[in-house]
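Lecture 7 notes: from sequence to structure.

We start with a single chain of 129 residues. Read the sequence below before looking at the structure.
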Amino acid sequence: MKNQNIEHFCPEGSDLASRASARNLRTKAEQTIKKGNTAVIDLTNVISISESYADELFAVLVEQHGLEWFSNNVKLLYDKSNSNGVFRSIATAIRRRLESQESHAIKISIDGLIAAKKASNSKNLNQHA
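Now the structure, written as tokens:
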């Protein structure tokens, strides 16, 4: 592991659904990572996680910092017997965030190309007038 120190975070409850709670945990994890530590999120007692919780905690981290940063700085502890649904929610939230981000980036690129084409056409019309 790149980071020397590890800080554990245990979400309260076994059914995670509060976006506000996820935001608080995300903020604490980010502060830990900024100090050069690894954030370990303990999901061993978690039975279910809503997509909004997964989005606010995990997908926002991936969107803001990138997937590589996330995998290098955030570790998950989990119970293999009840982790499938939890990881499915996390993966779905991250996938949706990244797709949305990618769609936005593509739209900006297309808008830029359209603007450049309009400017080029306008310049060409002015030269021929």
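The longest helix spans residues 84-128. Keep this in mind for problem set 3.
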